[in-house]
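Long-time lurker. I teach an intro course on protein structure, and each term I like to show students one example going from raw sequence to a predicted 3D structure in token notation. This year I'd like something fresh instead of my usual example. Would anyone be willing to generate the tokens for the chain below so I can use it in lecture? Attribution to the forum is fine with me.
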Amino acid sequence: ANYVNNGDYSSAENWAYGACGVLLHGEGVCQSYAIAFYMMATAAGVECEYVTGMSHAWNRVKINDKWYYIDCTWDDPIYNGHSGGGEGYAYYLSENGWPDHNVEEVKDLASDGKYYWINYYLTGKKYK
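-- Reply from a regular --
Happy to contribute to a lecture. Here you go:
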């Protein structure tokens, strides 16, 4: 996946805000990355949460009874046109998070109803 419009999220289509952005269109904003990761992790049986703060979204996963933060957007090697191979794993499985991430809310998206899934989490059609 690629961060939508090479980082210019202000001109992004609504789909770039839902999981279909990175999963179907190959690009999206941080919410798209985090929702898609949430869906894949929970489908694989990994307990996962959606984390937001400072106008950004990422995830938290539970592995061996311990919670870890993971930011698929900021550790994406294709950000701003780079072609991969640059994975640094700086935002992969951190117990305490990172100084440039301020956690404001942590939630399990499964607790939200069908309306949110159809209009926000999957399609992003109501984000704007």
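Some talking points for your students: The longest helix spans residues 30-43. The radius of gyration is 14 Å.
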